[in-house]
Amino acid sequence: TFQFIKHDTLPTNDCIDYSCFISSLENGQGQEMMKTNQQKNKQNYQMLLFCRKTGLSIGYDEDNNTFKFCRLPVCKGIAPFDGYAYVCINDIILFFGGQHYKNSHIVSKSVHKYSIQGKKWTTFKDILPIPLHYCCGLLNEDSSYIYIIKGFNSKHYMKPKNEIKCVIQHWVRILKIRLGWIDDFNKIIIKY
Q1: Looking at the 3D structure of the chain, how many domains does it have?
Q2: Is 118's pLDDT higher than 70?
Q3: Is residue 121 part of a domain?
Q4: Domain range spanning residue 59?
């Protein structure tokens, strides 16, 4: 309905831009939460926000029109970055690359994993072959494929399909999902 519901201030000093912002309904926990709340006739919504040093769980109680903020841990390896790609798969969020918010010449090759239920971070030992920032990660409908739509890296605007497949092949194996790439993405992105 795009109605104004409430004005509130996020409990952070970080500028929130190029962030990871998801609804917890995208994972199994959220669906259980919604079933419980529907039985009680309440509408509560949970969202997660990560940007730089800020990690927040944001709850919204529709009946009382209130927000509740809970701080979440942010690992040291991803804290100085924003502009990373991310995908949420069940109980985890994968973060790819990112740009240092104080020094734009520093672009990450790291891949991080956040466990929503365990509130635990893991930094993969393997790194991306190229530094990436301002790219986008998408899942197909049944979460069997990850699509990485490339943004920028420090030297090039586009990488071939096979190189992008190699970049995330290791993480795809760990998560037991298949990787796909639409050939026309290269043509579309180069045009614009």
Answers
A1: 1
A2: yes
A3: yes
A4: 20-25+42-175
